[in-house]
Amino acid sequence: MTTTTTTTTWTVREVPVPTTLDAPDAWLLLGANRVRTAGSIDVWGNADRADSPQAELAELRDSHAERTVRLVAVADESPTPGSDAGDPAAAVIGEASVGLPLRDNRHSALVEVNVSAAHRRRGIGTALLDAAAAVARADGRTLLMAHTGDRVEPPAGPGALESPTGAGRVNLDNPAVAWLRRTGWTLAQVDRRSQLDLPVDPALLRRHADDAAAAAGADYRLHTWGTDVPEQWLEEYAGLLAQMSTDAPLGDVDWRPEVWDGERVRAQERMLHDAGYELLVTAAEHVPTGRLAAFTNFWMPSHTDEYVHQGDTLVVAAHRGHRLGMLVKTANLEALIRQRPSVQRVGTWNAQENRWMLAINVALGFRPAGVSGTWQRPL
Ligand SMILES: CC(C)(COP(=O)(O)OP(=O)(O)OC[C@H]1O[C@@H](n2cnc3c(N)ncnc32)[C@H](O)[C@@H]1OP(=O)(O)O)[C@@H](O)C(=O)NCCC(=O)NCCS
């Protein structure tokens, strides 16, 4: 497809999966990575949530539990004449990804679109979204999902759109919000983005850890591991990941129970090694039964040593009310500080209505740092 705009003509293409990042066709992925990183900086103010080209290649290669299709808008002529000779990746002016879950949630596809700031309002985002929707439709998907981000949650009023849960608002003047609302998307839920700046007061952390340990009592024992789950906990951990998909509040998001087993966990570990990511996991064993009652994990990317992402935290329903959430979180944070003293920021997203999780984060020193909207559109 070639489209003419006032200044640039461009073509939407699927990104091939290069054998390595030095392969002759790798420029499409490298260009997509550059546009996506710029989009992430534009939305959040830094590249913390961006990914390295290596991580994006690993995601493209992996098709165990999810298949990813990447699309790019490529300028037919050099967009900045003279300055980018020899750098074909500079011709990529927009990019999209389509995530197609394979083990569960086969009704859905998660899309993300980014257009270079200099090329916005020319229909490139819409063309990429249409192409992404066509990929999803061809794969039998009936629901598109997408996220928008705001650095500051707007006050209630005419400039804000409320979450259907009643908790959380997004900015109506966010370009992505304006863009999605125009084409039949609806807001399904709002997450709070929270950030913890390190170092934290070690005494405060220890006090929370000691209080939680006292409340939990002698029945629980902590285990901490890295990317690879010890064989002993493999199936248990898979069970906790499955529960995570049903127990975290979902608002109006049509996300159905995920199917996890040890094989899927191991496949994810292989992908993480390939991507250059590391995990840090702390779980609480219920000693009388020998089963895992709670866990939390950090995702440590390779593109920065200053930032880590706080991922899932779950306490199994029968074990709630024993401060296990605080127990595993403080232990994992102490392990992180020991292992990665370079980390300056921990970021996390939680449903704005999830007051139990938010209360733990606030007590640890996390502060609100924006909101993320989850949007849906039937196909
Ligand atoms: C959201 C984004 C992808 C839109 O890309 P784009 O190429 O500018 O979008 P289009 O040109 O196809 O816009 C189509 C329509 O959306 C609406 N729209 C887009 N940007 C808008 C803005 N800043 N303000 C108001 N309306 C806007 C308009 O109705 C526009 O049509 P018009 O220009 O004829 O008025 C782009 O702003 C972007 O990359 N943002 C950062 C990343 C992001 O937030 N991605 C969305 C998450 S999936």
Give descriptors for this structure:
2 domains, Aminopeptidase, 9 helices, globular, 15 strands, alpha+beta, single chain, 379 residues, binds coenzyme A, disordered N terminus
What gap, in angstroms, lies between the N and C termini? Answer: 21 Å
| Widest sheet, order of strands | 1-2-3-4-5-6-15-9-14-13-12-11-10
What is the count of β-strands?
15
Q: Briefly note the CATH topology name of the largest domain.
A: Aminopeptidase
- Low-confidence segments, given as residue ranges, are 2-6
Structural domain tally = 2
Q: What proportion strand?
A: 25-35%
- Return the structural class: alpha+beta
Shape: globular
Describe this entry's structure for a reader:
The protein is α+β, with helices and mostly antiparallel strands. It folds into 2 domains: 2-141, Aminopeptidase; 199-343, Aminopeptidase, CATH 3.40.630.30. The protein contains 9 helices and 15 strands. It has helices at 27-44, 53-61, 124-138, 175-181, 202-216, 234-247, 262-275, 324-339, 355-364, and strands spanning 2-4, 9-14, 66-75, 92-101, 108-115, 143-150, 160-162, 169-171, 186-197, 220-225, 278-286, 291-300, 307-315, 345-351, 367-378. The strands form 2 sheets. A 13-stranded mixed beta sheet has the order 1-2-3-4-5-6-15-9-14-13-12-11-10, sandwiched between helices. Strands 7-8 form a two-stranded antiparallel ribbon. Helix 2 runs antiparallel to helix 7. The protein is globular. Residues 2-6 have low confidence and may be disordered. Bound molecules: coenzyme A. Residues 39, 42-43, 112-115, 120-126, 146-148, 175-176, 178-179, 182 line the site of coenzyme A.
